[in-house]
Design brief:
- There is one protein chain.
- By secondary structure, this protein is α/β, with parallel strands linked by helices.
- The protein has 6 helices and 7 strands; from the N terminus they run βαβααβαβββαβα.
- The strands form 2 sheets. The chain has a 5-stranded parallel sheet with strand order 2-1-3-6-7, with helices on both faces.
- Strand 4 and strand 5 form a beta hairpin.
- Helix 3 crosses helix 4.
């Protein structure tokens, strides 16, 4: 049985370093026997999470679609920028809404529970998005995800990619390769859909 991996960039900006890093991860995983797909959060606009909105109108359809995609995966790779040493609002809001989905097609679900998650970040700064990933890690662990210790950081991302979108730094390239391998190996050993 194939391992299903979803890649989720946490940025909408077309020139985003994190979207480039997500593309590189997709290229690496696509040459394995895993089934890899990518979700673009621009295709799933959501209101800012508000408990009153949820009580009044329920969980938005787009949040249900995202939760359904996540619940069908063996692994998730989040590639996120760092905003003010934390999670970008787009990603946090998406996680918050998706975590509120309790049923998918009439079946009980907790989209993040038991899900193997890898984290990566590219940043113009010297820490490569480290602090933002630590914040993402805390949130996902609270939701029951199996968040890998291995992660990929690309500091000084303005110089981090060549004209074809490939990583130019050997350490960053090796880190991404190791992260992708660990994500697949762990997902295969802890598969939720076997």
């Amino acid at each position: 049985m194939s391992t299903n991996v979803l890649i989720m960039p946490g940025s909408l900006r077309l020139g985003s370093y994190n979207r480039r890093l997500a593309s590189e991860a997709m290229r690496l995983i696509s040459v394995t026997d895993a089934v890899v797909s990518r979700i673009d959060l621009a295709d799933y606009p959501l209101p800012i999470y508000d408990g009153d909105v949820e009580a009044e109108t329920g969980v938005p359809h787009n949040a249900q679609l995202i939760a359904q995609r996540i619940a069908a995966q063996d692994a998730l790779l989040i590639v996120s920028p760092e905003y003010n040493a934390s999670i970008p609002p787009l990603l946090k809001n998406t996680i918050d809404w998706a975590s509120r989905v309790r049923k998918v097609q009439e079946r009980p679900v907790q989209p993040f529970k038991g899900l193997v998650v890898g984290l990566a970040s590219a940043s113009p700064g010297r820490f490569g998005g480290l602090r933002g990933l630590e914040a993402v890690r805390i949130v996902l662990r609270a939701l029951g995800a199996e968040v890998l210790t291995q992660q990929c950081l690309v500091p000084r991302a303005a110089e981090g990619f060549d004209e074809n979108g490939r990583l130019t730094d050997d350490v960053a390239r090796s880190s991404l390769e190791t992260l992708c391998e660990k994500l697949l190996d762990t997902a295969r050993s802890l598969t939720r859909h076997g």
